Amino acid sequence: xxxxxxxxxxxxxxxxxxxxxxxxxxxxxxxxxxxxxxxxxxxxxxxxxxxxxxxxxxxxxxxxxxxxxxxxxxxxxxxxxxxxxxxxxxxxxxxxxxxxxxxxxxxxxxxxxxxxxxxxxxxxxxxxxxxxxxxxxxxxxxxxxxxxxxxxxxxxxxxxxxxxxxxxxxxxxxxxxxxxxxxxxxxxxxxxxxxxxxxxxxxxxxxxxxxxxxxxxxxxxxxxxxxxxxxxxxxxxxxxxxxxxxxxxxxxxxxxxxxxxxxxxxxxxxxxxxxxxxxxxxxxxxxxxxxxxxxxxxxxxxxxxxxxxxxxxxxxxxxxxxxxxxxxxxxxxxxxxxxxxxxxxxxxxxxxxxxxxxxxxxxxxxxxxxxxxxxxxxxxxxxxxxxxxxxxxxxxxxxxxxxxxxxxxxxxxxxxxxxxxxxxxxxxxxxxxxxxxxxxxxxxxxxxxxxxxxxxxxxxxxxxxxxxxxxxxxxxxxxxxxxxxxxxxxxxxxxxxxxxxxxxxxxxxxxxxxxxxxxxxxxxxxxxxxxxxxxxxxxxxxxxxxxxxxxxxxxxxxxxxxxxxxxxxxxxxxxxxxxxxxxxxxxxxxxxxxxxx
Amino acid sequence: xxxxxxxxxxxxxxxxxxxxxxxxxxxxxxxxxxxxxxxxxxxxxxxxxxxxxxxxxxxxxxxxxxxxxxxxxxxxxxxxxxxxxxxxxxxxxxxxxxxxxxxxxxxxxxxxxxxxxxxxxxxxxxxxxxxxxxxxxxxxxxxxxxxxxxxxxxxxxxxxxxxxxxxxxxxxxxxxxxxxxxxxxxxxxxxxxxxxxxxxxxxxxxxxxxxxxxxxxxxxxxxxxxxxxxxxxxxxxxxxxxxxxxxxxxxxxxxxxxxxxxxxxxxxxxxxxxxxxxxxxxxxxxxxxxxxxxxxxxxxxxxxxxxxxxxxxxxxxxxxxxxxxxxxxxxxxxxxxxx
Lengths: 597, 339
Description:
The complex is a heterodimer.
Chain A: E1 14-23, E2 26-36, E3 41-45, H1 52-59, E4 67-72, E5 75-76, H2 83-89, E6 90-93, H3 105-109, H4 130-143, E7 146-147, H5 159-171, E8 177-181, H6 189-204, E9 208-212, H7 216-222, E10 225-230, E11 233-239, H8 245-253, E12 279-286, E13 293-300, E14 305-309, H9 316-323, E15 331-336, E16 339-340, H10 346-351, E17 354-357, H11 361-365, H12 372-376, E18 385-386, E19 389-390, H13 392-406, H14 422-434, E20 440-444, H15 452-467, E21 471-475, E22 487-492, E23 495-500, H16 507-514, H17 528-538, H18 556-562, H19 564-571, H20 575-589, H21 591-594
Parallel strand pairs in A: 3-9, 3-10, 6-8, 8-9, 14-21, 14-22, 17-20, 20-21
Antiparallel strand pairs in A: 1-2, 1-4, 4-5, 10-11, 12-13, 12-15, 15-16, 18-19, 22-23
Helix pairs in contact in A: 13-14, 14-15, 19-20
Chain B: E1 9-10, H1 18-27, H2 31-44, H3 51-76, H4 84-99, H5 113-136, H6 142-160, H7 171-178, E2 180-181, E3 184-185, H8 186-204, H9 206-216, H10 218-223, H11 228-254, H12 265-275, H13 287-306, H14 311-331
Antiparallel strand pairs in B: 2-3
Helix pairs in contact in B: 2-13, 3-8, 3-9, 3-11, 3-12, 3-13, 4-5, 4-6, 4-11, 5-11, 7-11, 8-9, 9-11, 12-13, 12-14, 13-14
């Protein structure tokens, strides 16, 4: 079953044979074939630009391939111009939300097929049956275990809820084929687990799933087989059990890739525990729709990377926004090198040396139609002027230097950022944050939705900044990102819940802590930070949990124990030995990190 | 990692039915403003709170209202049409031109008045079809295209009658604007019917809902099987025809078609729509809101006239009131400049 999926076989729920597609001079897809049996989950992996999105648009009927055919259940697919017919056969959940944010959840469930009251046949169809729509939507969503107000606008519910609404809607037409295009990109871990919990019964019922993801660990978890694309070509297909992670990454990246095997994250050098912090957050309290903060304190020392981990809504992004001056805290202070920043002033934060990588690069990271050069130098235009006039020569030089430093692949600094791949867009965003040589870089999910090689380059850039003596506050849900951290602070419901002070990180312990396991909810952790600092100083304990509620269940103490070798190395601050072990151990735990080989 | 239990995902920050409650508040946000205006009006003039005056206001705003319906439909789909005002003028002019004798600057065919009215509406629809096709199929920026059409159509309107005004229109032609039915002007009945029909259409038909889907997320609408291009063009056609209807109502009210009928109307149209909660970004707005916007602006005009504000100052006061109304509707959750 693993070899040639192109052979015609009636039971395939969906089958693409010899698909090729060109856009202008670019060959997006060359002779790619894949097929999915009932009850099977096929993973589709590849770097950004490998052709995954093109496959999705062809298999979901949005695009006609130049050559090749698509068969559904053994029959030829409907014509591309008939979206309704496609929708009855293939359920697709696209990478970008296909809900209408201004319409209610209920109406989105029934978009263009709303129930109607009895009318006068085709001449005068009955009016839309709103209450039936609400009841029906509520019922379907209850079956999916989502407790959501169906009368709320779709734009007002959480990302995870939106996702489930989309899947539920897609499957409510009774289709047997589900395409999920990076469904977990915006989900936190628990959400991913819940999603898989919902997919497994579908597979058991014989639904075939095409699963596209950057997270290889998820592919191993949910998929039966995996197909690798590279540069628009089919590289290999096989049962997930038969392909090791290293093999998979090699297949994705390709042997000739200049980035393969280089730039592994160096051992995190232990920062000087006595150095004055470059960033101090004191008793920060803030209210925000994406998660509030209550009395959070932490410090980042020169050359230190502090990871911040937490579920969606736990306040991690609010913390980052407050430091960057984008959220005005109600209490507490943010100090850069001892100087308090005025609340809610991103411009002042920038001048004081805060470099910011926002969570949603599409919304806040770059100006789509502006060129790479204009975007990447956006934070330093004041330095590129002469008598108040922008100097084109200096501007170009600065843009080139930054683009080179981050390894942005573009047709030139004038190319609009919107035309770049996701990974290169993110490099521009990070480049913009690093342009002013910040004292502190605040990065939120800096590698979200980018391919393996870009991920490595981005983390390498942050690591380099840290190596040069700046502080890094790294907010991420991706444990592979946190591999470069010196310490990890875990937030639960807006409060500091636990702090892990020594790599390597125990993945299970981190996840358990972020879900608030091991301590009472209403137990204010107080100033656990100071404890963490001390611990960081003597580097003897594997982790400390503020609030003192973390028992052995969290595995926090086991974190040190399981990797005794590195702990031994770490005690003396022998960063090379300790760090390297930590690095690889962390990667062993997270499949994404494994990409770094 | 093998947890298969379906834990409920708790709605973040959204309590039950809060969505419905919020939209209800927005819906009636302008009612207090209208009440305040009525109180002010009552102080300004004794004749304000009379049936005759309200009938007068209704007659004055009915043509505007029909154009606001047209613009609202187009705005909901995420487009805009600036040329509606010139369409409003030109379609009425063409109709009158076909009906009037040569001595009255007509073409000379002296068409039956009812056919003339129909011709006016067809012309409006055709102009809409032209705009819609170029915007949707040729992907020309709607703002610039309809701005060009706005200038072009107004020029044609002046050109075909060499800048003259067509008076002495036949009775059947002016019935829409000048006649009464059951103690109310026909134009008020027509405008009310248009508002109700458009409101029911938007609320209770699949294509009506498709307008919102297209304006809210065009790709999602397409993926849901909605025939996006066809509907977008259709909305321009209907919008054009409604603008023409509005123009014919106005022609009936003033019993003439001037070479500059419609001038500056579009700004009031946009103001009424936006005050009424219609989003310029598409996907949001309804007929009840649009109607309140129209009534509010009509009352302001009426009070300014009754208060005998110096005519030089009327525009300034009018603009200030629109500004205040916009600010108020923003406070209660209407249009935002960025989203």
